[in-house]
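Adenylyl cyclase-associated protein (Meganyctiphanes norvegica), 520 aa
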Amino acid sequence: MADILYLSSRVISQLATDGAGGHHGAQLDLVANMTTELASLVSRLEQAVIRLEKAGGPGTANRVAQGSAPSSSQDCNNVESAPAIGPWGEESSTPYIVAWDDMMNGPFKNFMDKSKLIGGEVETIAKLVQGCFLTQRAYLICATKSNKPNEADLPKILEPTGKKIQAVVEFRESNRSSRYFNHLSAVSEAIPALSWVTVEPAPSPFVKEMGDAGIFYTNRILKEYKDKDKSHVSWTQDWIGIFKEMQSYVKQYHTTGVAWNPKGGRALDNMKGAPPAPAGGPPPPPPGCPRPAISKKPTVDTSALFSDLNKGASVTSGLKKVTSDMQTHKNPSLREGPKPSVKQSSPAVPTRSSPVKQTAPVKPPRFELEGRKWFVEYQKNNRNIIIDDTSMDQTVYIFKCEGTVVQVKGKLNSIILDSCKKTSLVFDNLVSALEIVNCQSAEVQVTGRLPSCSIEKTDGCQLYLSKDSVGLEVVTSKSTTMNLLIPKDDGQFEELPIPEQFKTQIKGGKLETLATEIAG
């Protein structure tokens, strides 16, 4: 404040001197320079006040403004009567909470802004994601005040986060017909990364693994909107950036697991819920329907019934014998015996009430390079497709082919095999990954290097590897009859089935999943 007053006096005195001499140019330059210095000092002062508020509560800022800042940490403790509440919840000066808020104010805020710009289901699921992150922040706030919970308390503390994550997954599943389904899937596949708080002793790689789980769908978004709407491209980059930032955050502040406070209290007692998300989400469900009125039926006098039952065997003496002409049948025509079959002269003509089943129109085959992407689509029984004019920045997209063989030469970025039947693919080298989606009886052979492969919703896949690709990483989902064929020294291949059956157990409040073999 003294610096500001000093600069103000300099401005006034200099203006008076220059005004008398008529140096208008020097006067304007001096005013501009002084204004810049004043703005810089005010900004520094505001930052100092914010830091004091975090350390000592709102009362500290008032005392600073009055010129009587606390003289010791004891004064700060006396001033703070309740924790300060910021935009993301309870304020804290703990370094890993400050770093979390920086992430929320950076990549996460950009993601929320882009989601609002796109609107629709994307904006709705973004608000659900915001609830997940706020709940995780409340969990971390609890960790600053608590010692590590025991196995009995841990599931109760994790329950709010689990419910928020499940809400995101269920929203995606209930909106499969949405035109933004790829956006919803990219979010749903990656959001389990928030479960890193249960992973020990190295949670950072888990964040990367879960964040990468949505890459399949983010690639689809980039492919669809690259030349149409850049806001979707930015949205994708921001979503991926969140998990890159989170991985660095976890690696720095929670290297071997959540950093609990050894001197803190019981976590279950310190756990508080996350603040409510901003308004604008789905409306609350309507109130329950009123209970239906219960009608009173007239009571039946059963005394006569019990009186007849007490007669014993004589109760049936008044019944008549049933003869053949009195019997009925629900289908009397069956009594008439079999009839000779009559050949129909012509099939029934469909009427307006019985619609005729229509087959989808057959689309023409496509094989061309568009930009940096090769398209091989709707090919049938074509076994001579060769792509040889390739480069590292190109990709290949093979779609709706049947009984086809595609050969790709050279080194490319990636290949996608989508919705194909009895299709074979042979290629040399890939920089990124091979993706096999919604295929039947696919055969793939790599002659060079393949770093990773993902197989999703596929029934039958034979993947022949080269010696350079033995270190391949395979991610599978909802697929069956998958085999890796590893080359042997004698030139033959050893067939190794990829597990399809798993066993999951709960041990120490955590899930442990192991692959199992089907007996027999």
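The first helix runs from residue 2 to 21. The chain is about 40% helix and 20% strand. ok done for today
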